[in-house]
Amino acid sequence: MADEVGPFDRRTLAWLAGIGGGSLLLCLYLLLALPAAPDVASAQADAYSRSAIGHRAFLELLRTERMPAVVSRYASAARAAGSAVLVLLEPGDRRYRLKEMLETAEEVVIVLPKWRGREDPDHRGWLKGVTLRPTSEIAELLSAADVSATVRRLDRRGPLACGAWTADILAPQLLESTVLEAVVQCDGGILVGQLETEDGRIIVVADPDVFANHGIGRGQNAAIALAAVREAGAPGKTLIVDETLHGYEAPPSLWHSLFRFPLSPAVAQAGLIVLALVWAGLPRFGAPLPLARPLDSGKRTLIENTASLLRLGGHGPHVLERYMDAAVEAVRTTLHVPAREPRAQMLARLAARASAGGVDLRRIEPLVRRIQAGAAAGDAVLLSLAQKIHQWKEEIIRGPRISQGR
């Protein structure tokens, strides 16, 4: 049976196994050892920003306090409806979206904007400077949220008494309102207030410095920030921190996720496996090779196989000599030639009886002996001599006419 031919030799298979195993270990290392990088690089007032006005530190504070928080980039209000608290950290100018979200979510925390930052072009994620936003912008945002209140800015810096807490805020931004119920009341106005609505409740934080990276560590600002979110129902509920109003909306996409870390190494692994399978299948393209014909039974098959073995073993000359000797003995037995009569004398007497043009074994016998002794002869020569020996035997035993008829 012929050896089966595989798509790869052993060396190639070893290389493929080594590369596959190494890439798998590298993928596991990247998943376990490397920290997850933020999806967005920002220097503005959002949850991704590490700048002074950003809110990255607030998220770290929530995790430290074991308060579940999710940064949402799609359908934030729908995800928060009924079972979570929607947190809007200094929402942008998309006020029509703000109204829709307030109508959907039941518990909402709105942190009003205050600073406008200018990013440093030489240092991504850093600020080159900040300016105060006009109070008119904050008033428009309050109007879009249907919160009746007036914005006041105090020209001071340092500790600010706020009931049981002390806030440390630069240019404190407070609210005056007859509809807001004060949660954190400071000297000069409301820092954190709440408003009951038909759809639920809104918690309004007047000054974002208690949430911002630069201010959350000052005074008791962190405690005030936690008090605001706890007033909205946390830590019993998950906080959905919206980032769609900052322009970071990104609906979930399977294809987009597959080609991003940490799934991208697994996709690369799968691609390599597919290529290997295609490579392995290339020899099988096209029509399948016919199966080998099974061996027939009977004398013919046995004789053909025996002849093939003898030819492959180089035993043709020996077989030819044995065949000639067997033919002579068959003639001696058939014609009842006495065994004591010499072979040469018998062949001479038989040659005299042969017909004209018949085969003379005395001419063939020397050729057979030389070939047996080592003279070169191809298969065609051996076959021709064997046919002549057979013809000689048939002519002697059966006669020339019968031999020619066969």
Estimated share of beta-strand residues: 15-25%
List the helices and strands in order.
HHEHEHEEEHEEEEEEEHEHHHHHHHH
Separate helix tally? 14
Q: Work out the helicity level.
A: 40-55%
CATH architecture of the largest domain: 3-Layer(aba) Sandwich
> Strand order, biggest sheet?
1-13-2-3-12-11-10
N-to-C CA distance: 39 Å
Poorly predicted runs of 5 or more residues: 1-5
Which geometry do the CA atoms define? rod-shaped
Q: Might you state the CATH topology name of the largest domain?
A: Rossmann fold
- The top-level CATH class of the largest domain is Alpha Beta
Mean pLDDT: 82
Helix/sheet category? alpha/beta
The biggest beta sheet is recorded as: 7 strands, mixed
Rg from Cα: 51 Å
Number of domains: 2
Q: Please give the number of β-strands.
A: 13
